[in-house]
Design a protein that fits this description.
Helix content: under 10%
Oligomer: single chain
Strand order of the largest sheet: 1-5-6-9-14
Strand content: 15-25%
Distance between the termini: 12 Å
Shape: globular
Number of helices: 3
CATH topology: paralog of FGE (formylglycine-generating enzyme)
Number of strands: 15
Structural class: mainly beta
Order of helices and strands: EEEEEEEEEHHHEEEEEE
CATH class: Alpha Beta
Number of domains: 1
């Protein structure tokens, strides 16, 4: 599978409160050169670190833009929200991973050969795919050599080490999300709210469509969740959906809000995005 990585910018050496964080230098692929470029894993980011230490890194995997999520730690959940968001707890990732820059669009779903029992409720190539069941979403990601994100991966990409309330910061801004207050009762083209981009350069993690994640839903899981790369409960009847949607109000568009849906249901406000594991020393080729 051809992979083309575009580095938007590089972090050099940053000192935070006496602690140094260094990003591994990486060569940018330019022009039509066919020289392979090896991508090395970035340095782990401690919990509480300002998200501004990370500069987004974009990759192109067979025409699909994905953003690199660095290894690090963050505080997952909330002690001030619903019971299933409690307790707030530290989660860490030792390995980076790639996440789709945008929600999967209807055009991408069709071009990759995605299969769904029901057609999308709102039709249009730039609109997010919706009315897909959980297994249909997972199968689509696997066709791309990817997978659905875990719930913890999703929240880390949205929230970051600074533990943001919204993907863009700690204050709600209506122009940054497609939600009940401005959606006109429908979805919008993916990536149409640039102000809502997360710290790693991912769009629409708040609003537009909710997104299937890999985990089974358990309202008490956080009380026993492991610290390192939690994978969710081993069984269940419902799957977790994250990110809110065009039907949601402001109060449930936070980075830590949890929802669930029967995995056999396809709904007009639930779509998806994919992630893929980072491979140390990946080779990137220019087109």
């Amino acid at each position: 599978m051809k992979q083309h990585i575009v580095l938007l910018s590089l972090i050099g050496f940053i000192v935070l409160g006496g602690m140094a964080i260094a990003a591994t230098p990486t060569t940018i692929v330019s022009g039509s050169a066919l020289t392979p470029t090896l991508i090395s894993a970035p340095t782990k980011i401690p919990v509480g670190t300002s998200h501004t230490v990370w500069t987004p890194v974009e990759g192109d995997f067979d025409g699909v833009a994905m953003m690199l999520v660095p290894p690090g730690c963050f505080m997952m959940g909330s002690d001030h929200g619903d019971d299933d968001e409690k307790p707030i707890h530290e989660v860490c990732f030792d390995q980076p991973f790639w996440m789709d820059k945008y929600e999967v669009s209807q055009a991408q779903f069709r071009q990759v050969g995605g299969k769904a029992t029901s057609p999308p409720h709102f039709k249009g190539d730039p609109l997010p795919i919706e009315q897909v069941k959980w297994k249909e979403s997972q199968a689509f990601c696997e066709t791309r050599g990817a997978r659905l994100p875990t719930e913890a991966e999703w929240e880390y990409a949205a929230r970051g080490p600074e533990n943001l309330i919204y993907p863009w910061g700690n204050e709600f801004k209506a122009d940054n999300a497609i939600y009940a207050g401005n959606s006109g009762d429908r979805t919008a083209p993916v990536g149409s709210r640039p102000g809502g981009v997360s710290w790693v350069g991912v769009y629409d993690l708040s609003g537009n469509v909710g997104e299937w994640v890999a985990d089974w839903y358990d309202e008490t899981y956080y009380a026993n969740s492991p610290k390192d790369d939690p994978q969710g409960p081993s069984r269940g009847r419902r799957r977790v959906v994250r990110g809110g949607s065009w039907t949601y109000f402001e109060s449930v568009l936070t980075t830590y809000d949890r929802n669930w849906v029967n995995p056999d249901f396809g709904l007009g406000f639930v779509g998806m995005r994919c992630v893929r594991d980072f491979v140390e020393g990946e080779t990137n080729l220019s087109p």
